[in-house]
Amino acid sequence: xxxxxxxxxxxxxxxxxxxxxxxxxxxxxxxxxxxxxxxxxxxxxxxxxxxxxxxxxxxxxxxxxxxxxxxxxxxxxxxxxxxxxxxxxxxxxxxxxxxxxxxxxxxxxxxxxxxxxxxxxxxxxxxxxxxxxxxxxxxxxxxxxxxxxxxxxxxxxxxxxxxxxxxxxxxxxxxxxxxxxxxxxxxxxxxxxxxxxxxxxxxxxxxxxxxxxxxxxxxxxxxxxxxxxxxxxxxxxxxxxxxxxxxxxxxxxxxxxxxxxxxxxxxxxxxxxxxxxxxxxxxxxxxxxxxxxxxxxxxxxxxxxxxxxxxxxxxxxxxxxxxxxxxxxxxxxxxxxxxxxxxxxxxxxxxxxxxxxxxxxxxxxxxxxxxxxxxxxxxxxxxxxxxxxxxxxxxxxxxxxxxxxxxxxxxxxxxxxxxxxxxxxxxxxxxxxxxxxxxxxxxxxxxxxxxxxxxxxxxxxxxxxxxxxxxxxxxxxxxxxxxxxxxxxxxxxxxxxxxxxxxxxxxxxxxxxxxxxxxxxxxxxxxxxxxxxxxxxxxxxxxxxxxxxxxxxxxxxxxxxxxxxxxxxxxxxxxxxxxxxxxxxxxxxxxxxxxxxxxxxxxxxxxxxxxxxxxxxxxxxxxxxxxxxxxxxxxxxxxxxxxxxxxxxxxxxxxxxxxxxxxxxxxxxxxxxxx
Length: 675
Ligand code: CAA
Description:
Layout lengths: L4 E6 L2 E6 L9 H16 L5 E6 L22 H9 L5 E5 L2 E3 L1 H8 L2 E4 L4 E3 L13 H8 L2 H10 L3 E2 H6 L5 E2 L5 H13 L16 H9 L9 H14 L2 H16 L2 H16 L16 E5 L3 H12 L3 E5 L3 H20 L5 H9 L1 E4 L10 E4 L5 H14 L5 E4 L6 H5 L8 E6 L8 E5 L6 H13 L3 E5 L7 H18 L3 H11 L5 H8 L15 H7 L12 E3 L5 E3 L1 H13 L9 H21 L6 H12 L8 H8 L1 H10 L6 H9 L6
Helix pairs in contact: 1-2, 2-3, 3-4, 4-5, 4-9, 5-9, 9-10, 11-24, 12-13, 13-14, 18-23, 23-26, 25-26, 26-27
The structure holds acetoacetyl-coenzyme A.
């Protein structure tokens, strides 16, 4: 096999070049090639300096994550970085694209660094539940300072080249198009200076920055193991000699890589990328061109959906029925953008550019020049059918007609047009301009190129999209239903809202089912007839307990929206419980998990069996990005695999649930949803 690493001699400078598409991951062959390149330079007396650079779209984007579960191949990355650092001839890293993880560590092994202005450098290992295990936590505080090191390692957020220059992470900026040439010139300049091994540099900055950083971010890191391990390693760099620091880092790295959290986070890394792939699409299918998007409805959903496209530079025509609703909707969009600008997330001219792409109108006919139309009106089949019937007459041939429905049957909606092949669902999650998940619903007659277009567009607007089949609630909301139902039943049997919510929060959810109901509005979906009281939610809604917005719901709220258990709510629960003839009993936390979370796994298994999700990992992606399932548990299906599907089945059977056949099979064979 030919090596992905080659060398090029430029008089007294040896350039080591890696070309390992797509992202120059540091797989075994690359490591062997780098090691050989350094040896070649050292063995040749006429070579005075070395440049390491990459061909293709990026500098090394990290260790090869696919190797993590395979037997190790020598030389390991830490050895290669040490070999580079030990070179007696200066070694220069020439950086473009993204120098991430092990890639960033290779640059730290080099003696000097030069980068193009668009380059980024970072240590995102923490996002995989890991830490930079090739000396990154020990070299970064020496090269870039304690403050930058702890932030980069524990958050995984990369820094741009300009910032890298400021903090000393790079020594020089190259021309955007002249990196190869500039790096050789820089290398020649450094011959006189000689090597500058990072390990010999003193740690820079104030140690107190570490504790301050940990304190500020404690909430963000709740439940995660890796951020604390990263912080501890950077802290170790401030007090241990370099070699001891390296040994400490290794020990911490192995602890993390053997753990469930890192396995879960790595699973999600690949799951997110896998989700983009559509089963059963011929290789010659091409996406349709989308220049202008139409959105029907300027309410919270329609406005949020429009903002996604405007922010990505795609023109939007937004339609409402009345002028005041249109003005209100577009006004909120502008306000949201201006709030982002005030926080420094956007420049004022970007606000104007985005709003400049928006065409508000009251005329549905104005959608005639749109390539994709997303309907975001309220959930009523007759209304949706009427709109789609009209769109069929107005829209140009080949335009994609999408509904943002959360539950309704896309095939039935499609049947109200003469072009069901162009109809699909695009289910955004609220707030639509923030939440990353998009369920793209494939109808029975949806054309492959229409589906592919929607999936591609999702990526363009920064969403993580998952293909779902036509069923009530698609993937996410369908699995939410048994959870919500059981949560309610648990209240009737003796659990309190606070107990159920606590169990969910301790599990790692951002909030529990009742906190969520209070935030979203207890009155959502309420029939608005105070005399018709069929369940606890109806009873709460009837007495104005609509959630945070009315200062009371399942909980009471003070003016700062801090919740406290409510006597009135408890009374309502007790009344219902008594009416149903139930005797209250002590409910264990484990029972709450079994009845609210195991039931979700059971529903997920049915969704898979029915082909409503393409793969188990897609379900995991839905729950991570749409509902805040803790990423360190890898999504519900991955979590079930780690718990053991036999344990899940036993837990469900205890409470008399019918078990999905697929789940049963996996339990019997000790199988997994995610292979
Ligand atoms: N190892 C193996 N495969 C990788 C990879 C890696 N480090 N990074 C990306 N890939 C693969 C992706 O899975 C994807 O494969 P498919 O096309 O088969 O789906 C392909 O490369 C392209 O990736 P993206 O679709 O993500 O491309 P992008 O242009 O959107 O993003 C990127 C490029 C910013 C580099 C992004 O891929 C990324 O963030 N990669 C991971 C970076 C990372 O976490 N590095 C740290 C690795 S751990 C480490 O280095 C540990 C250590 O210290 C020892």
